Amino acid sequence: MSKPEFVYVTYIETTAEKLWHALTDSDFTERYWFGYRVTSDWKAGSPYHFTKDGKPSVRGEVLISDPPNKLAYSWDVVKEGVEREQISRVAFDIEPRGAVVKLTVTHDNLGPKTLREISGGWPMVIASLKSFLETGRELPAELLASGTKEARNAQA
Fold first, then answer.
1. Among 114, 130, 101, 128, residue whose Cα is nearest residue 36
2. What is the separation of C-alpha 48 from the centre of its chain, rounded to a whole number of angstroms?
3. Which 3 state secondary structure label does DSSP give 14?
4. Chunked in runs of 10, what are the mean pLDDT values of the chain (156 residues)?
5. Residue 81 region, left (φ>0) first, then alpha (ψ -120 to 50), else beta?
6. Are the C-beta atoms of residues 36 and 50 closer than 8 Å to each other?
7. CA neighbor of 70 nearest in space, from 24, 7, 6
């Protein structure tokens, strides 16, 4: 039996290089990812981690680093007060399409709780990323909280 998978596709008016930079630069992620900073050297096999207000939330290993085309890493939730499930995997496929870039986010090997959480979270994060790259403004943080609550309620 295959593990649940989440796939999200969007098109962003930017370059592949700018999108890669936004996905891997701590200062950028903190802006559009609602205060979460991601840090790593982004080499395959290297560790990475997300923190918010200095507290760890997600960590893992860089599995694929092919700038500016593909980034993949394991996803291990370590946020205080959150029950851990199996380690999952996130992949970002970046494909230039003229004046836009097609971004495909695939999150797989998901447990049921993680699937519920990311089903509301990823659309908000990617919408904020898109807004940030196209307008210079990220989405308001309140949207992430309401988006994850809606996803939990829809699947309850």
1. 128
2. 13
3. coil
4. 81 98 97 95 98 95 98 93 88 97 97 89 95 94 61 42
5. left
6. yes
7. 24
Residue type, 109: N
Q: Specify the amino acid at residue 33.
A: W
| Terminal Cα distance for the chain, rounded | 22
How many other CB atoms are found less than 10 A from the CB of residue 52? 15
Return d(Cα 106, Cα 93) in angstroms, integer.
8
- Token digits for 125? 């994060």
Place of tokens 């004046």: 99
Sheet with strand 5-12: strands edge to edge: 5-12, 100-108, 88-97, 70-77, 55-66, 47-52, 37-39
pLDDT in tens, 122-153: 999 999 999 999 999 999 887 756 554 554 44
